[in-house]
Amino acid sequence: MILADSPAIEQNGILNLAKDQNRIRKRGGSTAKEPSPSRWRNSNQNRVYSAKLFDAVRRVRRNDSPVKPRGRSIREAADRALAVTDGGRTRWGSAILASQSIRRKNRRIRPVCVGEPRSKLVGPGRRGGKIPAVEGKVKFLGRLVPGCRKLSLPSLLQEAADYIAALQMQVRAMTNLTEKLSGFAAAPLTSRPVSDSGSPIPS
């Protein structure tokens, strides 16, 4: 949930810009099928993600690691479930799955480098200069959406709109799951549904 931990973004503006870019591409005769942000408002998609989210959270609670904080583990599991639900249709979904796979393979202590602080030169021809406002905002948005740092503006807007819609559905699903788990914890043992093994399960 990268956007949730970052400064607020003008979500409506991004969504509108993405719609405009879609209309332009359609008028130009493009036949490529772009993932639509509206799919994340579909009730079936919501149910699919909610089921994956519940399974992911249950695995985290079962395999609780003393090294990694539980909150971080749940956040990563929720993001992975979101990317799996995306099904590889977007760059951000593929980037989340790839980054978590690499992170699991490289869980080792990184060497600490001590030396001169990095130069503040931005690049050739920009010694001490400022990045134009629009370009700076585009780069900022590209850093917020996983796997989208080097995309063109139209593609970046499309990915950002889809990612925002996915995060909105994620928030709804996590809120609903939290409410159900809270109600389950507060319910008397005699009133809880029981699994085949005899242990209570959430409704």
Automatic annotation (TrEMBL):
The keyword Nucleus applies. It is found in: Nucleus. One of its GO terms (biological process) is regulation of DNA-templated transcription. One of its GO terms (cellular component) is nucleus. The keyword Ribonucleoprotein does not apply. It comes from the Eukaryota. GO terms for molecular function: protein dimerization activity; transcription cis-regulatory region binding. InterPro entries: bHLH_AtIBH1-like, HLH_DNA-bd_sf, IBH1-like. Its main location: nucleus. Keywords: Nucleus, Transcription, Transcription regulation. Residues 20-45 are annotated as: Disordered. Belongs to the bHLH protein family. This is Uncharacterized protein.
